[in-house]
Amino acid sequence: MWGKLLGTCFGFMFGRWLGAALGFWLGHLFDKSLKQDFDKAGGFQGFFDKGELDQRQALFFSSCFAVMGHIAKSNGRVSEIHIRAATAFMDDMGLHGEERKEAQNAFRSGKSGEFSLKESIRDVKEVFGRRYDLLQLFLEIQIQMAFSDGYLAEQEKQLLQQVSKLLGLSSRHFQFLLNRYQAEFQFRKQRSQQQGQQSSYHSEQQSNYRHRAEPPSLNRDNALAVLGLSKSANEKDIKRAYRKLMSQHHPDKLVSQGLPPHMMEVAKQKSQDIQSAYEFLKAK
């Protein structure tokens, strides 16, 4: 569209109507070629070459695991829980062979006393400075690691605040992400428990028709908190927040900005949690 429009305008400027016709035709060829290249490159990935995309993804990958290791060591030593959390994270990403070794090495480098958090985050900010959604996901992953033992220590919180500030995110938005992750964690746990108890409930119903107990209910307030909303949120607020969060965590868009394909599972999980909370609220 833009090729035809601009081609027609420039053609008219230099050749009147004949130039406009020629410009329209050339613009059409440009639009057609651009769309083919765009589709072949996987959408927005076409805006920079494959080499640049690989470099972005490699930086995000190594920096993410290094900062995770640094946060895990914030209490003086890395606990078994943090190690299991990092291992589970690698499993979820399907990392094997050399890729898994790279993640483990990056995690270990973050635990080293020579590791510079400021330098690492500075590099991330320099490369992804205009990719706000990707910077936010980077911080969300670190929050997830800090909460892996179910508790956020003061040292961990201070480091997360530092990471947030270095990434250029406000303290208010940091608190918003922190609260939203806690709600997301609780909602996911609550949903899992309900699914398990519902299965048990139906089994008991089949064996005992006089059993009257009801399976537990999910919490509406917690579902609202997953979307970053307060108890007073109305239907319009819910829909607006849902669309915004789904856009921010869209896996394909994040990969096109530099998210390593293996980390797409993280974005997918967050999208599923957002979707589940929204569907729960819609049914109410």
TrEMBL record:
Functional summary from the UniProt entry: Regulatory DnaK co-chaperone. Direct interaction between DnaK and DjlA is needed for the induction of the wcaABCDE operon, involved in the synthesis of a colanic acid polysaccharide capsule, possibly through activation of the RcsB/RcsC phosphotransfer signaling pathway. The colanic acid capsule may help the bacterium survive conditions outside the host.
Membrane topology summary: Single-pass type III membrane protein
Alphabetical list of HAMAP family matching this protein: DjlA
Species annotation: Pseudoalteromonas phenolica
Protein location: Cell inner membrane
Region feature (Disordered): 188-217
Chief location bin: membrane
One Pfam family hit: TerB
UniProt subunit comment: Homodimer.
Cellular component, GO annotation: plasma membrane
Keywords attached to this entry: Cell inner membrane, Cell membrane, Chaperone, Membrane, Transmembrane, Transmembrane helix
InterPro entries in UniProt: DjlA, DjlA_DnaK_co-chaperone, DjlA_N, DnaJ_domain, J_dom_sf, TerB-like
J domain span: 222-284
Protein name: Co-chaperone protein DjlA
Stretches of the chain found on the membrane's Periplasmic side: 1-4
NCBIfam families the record matches: PRK09430.1
Biased composition (Low complexity): 192-207
Domains (record comment): The transmembrane domain is a dimerization domain.
GO molecular function: protein-folding chaperone binding
All ranges on the Cytoplasmic side of the membrane: 29-284
